[in-house]
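Shift notes (night). Ran Zinc finger SWIM domain-containing protein 7 while the centrifuge was going.
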Amino acid sequence: MASQRLLLLLALLLLTMLAAVVAGEGDGVSATGTDGANATTGAGPPAGGTLDVRARKWWRFPATEGLITGSERRDAVWAEIKSAGRASDEHLSILETLFGKNMLRACKIVDERGVRRVTGAPSGRSLFLVIGESKRKEEYLCFPEHLCTCYSFYDIVGRGEQLCCKHQLAARLAEAVGEHQEMEVTDQELAHMLAKL
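Came back to this:
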C-alpha cells in the first residue's frame, strides 16, 4: 500500500513538474545587460552584459521585428489544425517541411489508428500510447511536446538531429484532428504506467 502511494506521489510530482515546465516556457530573452541597456528594444547589445545563449535572441535588429520564428509558425499551424479539426494539404506540407520524413511516418501511424490517449480519473491528467511501425508493434509512452520512450527520442532527438520523433508527431496530430482512441484508467493505474519510465 505504501509503495502504491509512493508511486502515485512520484507520478503526480512528475506531471506537476512537466506542467511547470510548460507554464514557464518563455523565449528566455534577457531584458537588460549589466549596463542596464534594454536588449529587446533593438538599442544594441548590452556592453559587458551576459548573453542568454538558450534564447539566441539577445539583440534584435529593427529590420527583423515582426518576423515570426519557426517555433511560432509551427505552433500556429498546430493551433489552426486543432481549431479546424482537420489538417489541410497546406498544413501537412508545412509540417513536412519542418519535420521531414518523420511527419510522413506520423501520418501513417494516425491513419492506422495507432494512437491512444490514456486519461486518469479523477485528475484528468493524460498521456499517449503510440504504436510503433516495427513488426513487434511496440507501444511507446508519449507526451507529445516533451518526451517519448522510443529509442529514436533518446538517440536522435537527444543529440539534436531532429526536433521530435514520429511518435510525438503522431500523438500531436491525432489529438489535433480527433483521430485517437480514448482510454480511461484510475490515477493509480496512470501512476504505474509513469513508473515504467
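The two ends are 21 Å apart (CA to CA). The beta strands are 115-121, 126-131, 139-143, 147-148, 181-186.
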